[in-house]
Design goal:
The protein is of the alpha+beta class. It is built from three helices and 16 strands.
Length: about 210
Amino acid sequence: MFKRATLSAAALMVAATPILAAQATATTDLNLRAGPGPEHEIIGVIAGMDQAEVNGCIEDGAWCEVTYDGQTGWAHRGYLSGSATEATEVTTTRTVTYMKEGGNKEAGAAAGAVTGGAIAGSLIGGPAAIAAGVVLGANAGSEAVPEPETRTVTYVTENPVEPIYLDGEVVLGAGIPEDVEVYSIPESEYSYLNVNGQDVLVKEDRTIVYIYR
């Protein structure tokens, strides 16, 4: 069981005067996790182009505590934009520390081991590049990725594979490193794997084109 994040000493000084949570836009459908890292449980999804309140971010880290639709959790700051039209990573003057049971501080992101094994690498492309493409596509009214055939969905759900943990967040357009194994699907143009606890479909160039939610 994890305790709620607490403000750092520096943040407490900032909070001496009233301060509103920063508003940020999710540049793509973005997982809301129970803690600051890809190993933590997904407790919700911030819809792409929706706004969330940023309560604070881990100093020099990739994760922010946010509130969306009445639920508070953690989201990857690389996909939180200060604007609905620009993929500029959100910044905040408030910092938070994540306190595990017993008082251990967690930096989130790539530090330490995770459930199922240590983080094996990073998703390719980078949040800024992916988010920029998503924002531009959304503004241009681009079509969503087609729903895969039922037999493809069924095959993946009936043939589970061990998860691989990669630094970053599972979003459309992210690339899978070459040294990570992907699994073929009979009579399908896609392969699949489980990244950070989520089954995904990837095309031949190893980019994620569909996320099982």
